[in-house]
Amino acid sequence: MAKPAFRFTHYDLKELRTGAIIEVSLNAVNNVRLMTSGNYQRFTEMLDFKYLGGVAKKSPVRVTIPETSHWHLIVDCEGHHTLAESAVKMLPPRSMPVLREKSTATA
């Protein structure tokens, strides 16, 4: 079975919920691709696949998970000189503003 001819780093992010935010740190320009399990399988088999992301020229890169699913992140050097060193971390979800109930009591 054929495999991609370029080097890549794979992160299995497991199931993530809609709105989760991940931060990817790189030490060089590389491609950052977020994909579902089905698309990751297609990627490894060198078939057409869909992903979110693209060339990351700045680091860190923040990606918001678009829907609850099992996600995979690929950092790869296709079209670039070398595979970047990379790290992925989860960021705390953006907090919603707290609405405070106004008091109508008078003293």
TrEMBL record:
<dbReference type="Pfam" id="PF08980">
    <property type="entry name" value="DUF1883"/>
</dbReference>
<dbReference type="InterPro" id="IPR036488">
    <property type="entry name" value="DUF1883-like_sf"/>
</dbReference>
<feature type="domain" description="DUF1883">
    <location>
        <begin position="6"/>
        <end position="93"/>
    </location>
</feature>
<protein>
    <submittedName>
        <fullName>TIR protein</fullName>
    </submittedName>
</protein>
<dbReference type="InterPro" id="IPR015073">
    <property type="entry name" value="DUF1883"/>
</dbReference>
